[in-house]
Write a structure and sequence with these properties.
mainly alpha
Length: 244
């Protein structure tokens, strides 16, 4: 019998570390100064998310198709970086909308993955919980498309509030609160838009449990209806040039 290389379960402290509020708050200040400094997002997640990844993986296994997804352990980042594969989706499919979004924003799934590797080396470990963490990382921009939130500052603030509701990762909650406190009082309902995003995340289907290969092939509007993702009315009511 050939020997199989297996990485044993890492120390539990990797999944439920002591929360480092000082580290998280310093990273939040840097992120609020530059919303494109994605490395700070990973720093906040590392400092605060604690057992959220472990709990999310266990929840995945309790879903109808979660066992199959976990057994297959498909890595999404390389697949989502395959431009020829993305070109095969119809324009009105989730995959077509994702393709357009990524090209318009000059983003790449591998670029996000590389930032994650630099910030959290353990993220690349061969372990089910870290596979789940990579999966959650790699669907971030798909969630932009599904939720209807753009990459403007308010859109990112809304998506992190949505993500907290979906994942229960405390790092997402801290970023959402930072965005909410940063919102300038005035005529635009910024705080209501962020609160709406959290409520949408609570009421929607559990997106971490989706089969993303199948989902990307679905018509976008049909997928949104199936997942309970009505349009973000308050966010969309704010003029685009005021969402920064």
């Amino acid at each position: 019998m050939s020997e199989v290389s297996v990485t044993l379960a890492p120390d539990r402290s990797l999944f439920a570390p002591r929360r480092q509020w000082g580290v998280a708050l310093r990273a939040l200040r840097r992120l609020l100064a530059d919303k494109d400094d994605t490395a700070q997002v990973f720093e906040i997640m590392r400092a605060l998310n604690g057992p959220a990844t472990m709990r999310g993986y266990r929840r995945l296994l309790r879903t109808a198709q979660g066992g199959r997804l976990a057994y297959d352990r498909l890595e999404l980042a390389p697949m989502l970086a395959d431009q020829a594969w993305l070109d095969g989706f119809a324009p009105d499919a989730v995959g077509g909308a994702y393709r357009t979004f990524m090209r318009q924003e000059n983003l790449s799934s591998e670029g996000l993955a590389e930032i994650g590797r630099r910030q959290i080396a353990a993220l690349e470990m061969r372990h089910p919980h870290f596979w789940y963490a990579r999966r959650t990382r790699d669907v971030h921009d798909i969630w932009h498309v599904l939720s209807g939130y753009g990459r403007d500052a308010l859109g990112e603030g809304c998506l992190v509030a949505f993500s907290y509701a979906q994942t229960k990762g405390l790092g997402w909650a801290l970023i959402a609160l930072g965005a909410a406190f940063r919102a300038r009082p005035g005529r635009q309902p910024y705080l209501r838009a962020i609160w709406e995003a959290y409520r949408r995340g609570r009421s929607a289907a559990w997106l971490p449990g989706e089969d993303y290969v199948a989902l990307l092939a679905e018509p976008l509007e049909e997928a949104r209806r199936r997942l309970g993702l009505n349009p973000p009315a308050i966010y969309l009511s704010i003029p685009q040039d005021l969402r920064g």
